[in-house]
Amino acid sequence: MTQPYAYRSSLLRVVSRAVTLLALVAVTGLLIWPQRRRIRRPGRLAAWSTAYVGGLLGVLLFVEPLFEDDGWVMATIENYSSTGQFGNYYNSWNSTYASATAFMHMLQWVLGWSSSLVALRGLALVVSVVSWWLMLRIFHRLSHGDLLRFRRHVLYALPAYSLCAISWLITLRPEPYIAMASAVVLLCAIAVVQDEDMRYLALAGVACGFAIASHPGGIVAVAPMLVIAPELLTRVRTRVIRLRDLAWSLMFPAAASLWMLFADLDVGGWRLQARLNENPGISNFTWRDDLLHYLSLFDAGNAPRRLSWLVVVVAVIAYLTRRDRDIPLESALPVRSFVVASILIAALPSKWLWHFGALTAIGVVV
Q1: What H or E segment, with its residue span, contains residue 68?
Q2: Would you give the distance in Å from CA 193 to the centre of its chain?
Q3: What is the DSSP letter of 3?
Q4: Is-contact 100 80, C-beta < 8 A?
Q5: How far apart are CA 321 and CA 288, in angstroms?
Q6: Which DSSP category does 87 fall into?
Q7: Which has the closest alpha carbon to 341: 307, 318, 364?
Q8: Residue 237 and residue 4: Cα distance in Å, rounded?
Q9: What share of the chain is helix, strand, coil (3-state, %, to 5)?
Q10: H or E stretch including 181?
Q11: pLDDT tens, per residue, the chain with 366 residues
C-alpha cells in the first residue's frame, strides 16, 4: 500500500530558519533606518488615495471571481503540511517547485491561522496596499517636493492602479508579491541615483531575490537595477561611488537571495525539480515564442486586463515620441524599467497571461 510520506521539521531546522529570517529582517531594517527621516509625508492626498485603494481591494476580495490558479496554489500549500514540500501532486509526481516557494511560505503561515480563501487572498490585499504606498514614495521622490506635481502623479496613477487591481491583484498567484518587490526595487533605484547611498542598492537586491524565489517571473524586478547599472559603473569609474561600497552592497543581497532561492532545495535538487517540471507545450518555450504571451492576453484575457496593458503601452509610446530629450535618469527610470521588464518576461519558459500582472507596479508608475 502506497501512502504519502510524513514530514516533520526538526527543532534545529526550525530554529535555524527563524534565526536566519530574523537576522535578515534586522539587517534590512538597519539598512533603511538612517534614511527614514528624509522621506516626508506627502499630504492628505496620499492618505485618502491609500484608503481608496484599500477599500477597492476590500470590495474585490469578496466579489472577485475565483480562478483555477487559486485552487492550484491552495492545493500546493495544503500539500506542504503532509509532505514538507510545495509540490504539484497532480503533475510531475509531486515534484517540488524549483523557484516558487518564497511567497508560498507566507501563505503557509496564513493557512496556519485560517484555511479560508478570503483570508489567504487577504494577504494579496495587504501586499497590494503596500505596493501603492511604495508608489506614493516613488512619486514623492520624482516630484522633488513639488506638491502640485505630486498630486498630478497620484491622480494619473490612481485610475491605472484601480484597473490593475481589478485585473491582476486579488489572487493567490505570486504576481501581487512580485509587483510589490518591483516597487521596492524601483524606489531604491531612484534613491540610489538621487542620494548615491549604497544601502538602498542592498535593499533592492534583497527584493530582487524575494521576487525570483517566488516565481521565475520575478525576473522583472531586476529591470530597474539593469537600467541604473551603466550609471553606477560610470560613478565608480569617476570615484563618485567607492568600489568597496558597491561590492559590500551587492554581497549582502546575494547571500540573502541564495538563502531564499535554496531554502527548500539544494542545488542538485533544484536542478532535478526544474527538469521534472518541464511540461511540453506548457513550460518549455523560449524567447522566440514570446508572441504567445500577447496572444494569450488578447485571446483569453478579459477587457480590463487588455486595457490595463494598453494604458501603459500608450504611456511608453508618449515617452518615446516626446520632444524634450533631456530627461534626468530618475525621471526616465520607470518607463525604461518597464521596457526592460517587458523584454525579460520573454525569457520565461511559460507564456501565461498572468505574467503581465507582475508588471503592475512599474507600469502604473510609468
Answers
A1: helix 68-83
A2: 21
A3: -
A4: no
A5: 27
A6: B
A7: 364
A8: 57
A9: 75, 0, 25
A10: helix 175-195
A11: 333 434 444 555 555 556 555 655 655 555 555 444 444 555 688 888 889 999 999 888 888 777 777 878 888 887 777 777 777 655 556 666 766 678 888 888 888 787 788 888 888 899 999 999 999 999 988 888 788 888 888 888 888 898 888 888 888 888 899 999 999 999 999 998 888 778 888 888 889 888 988 888 889 999 999 999 888 888 888 877 778 777 877 887 888 888 787 776 667 666 776 676 666 556 667 777 778 778 877 776 677 788 888 888 887 887 777 777 677 888 888 888 998 998 888 888 777 788 888 888 888 887
Contact (Cβ atoms closer than 8 angstroms) between residue 274 and residue 266: no
* 84 vs 16: CA distance, rounded Å: 16
Instruction: Report the distance separating Cα 287 and Cα 85, nearest Å.
Output: 30
Is residue 297 within 8 Å of residue 306, measured between CB atoms? yes
Measuring CA to CA, which residue among 160, 238, 157 is closest to residue 196? 238
Grid look-up 539598512 returns: 31
Contacts of residue 136, defined as CB under 8 A and 6 or more positions apart, other chains included, come to 42, 46, 49, 50, 154
Residue closest to 166 by CA, chosen among 248, 77, 53: 53
CA–CA gap between residue 32 and residue 29 (Å, rounded) = 5
Structure pTM?
A: 0.84
Q: How is residue 326 written as a grid cell?
A: 533631456
Evaluated on CA atoms 291, 295, 298, 300, the torsion sign reads: negative
Residue found under cell 496596499: 129
Closest to 349 (Cα-Cα) out of 299, 301, 276, 290: 290
CB 60 within 8 A of CB 165: yes
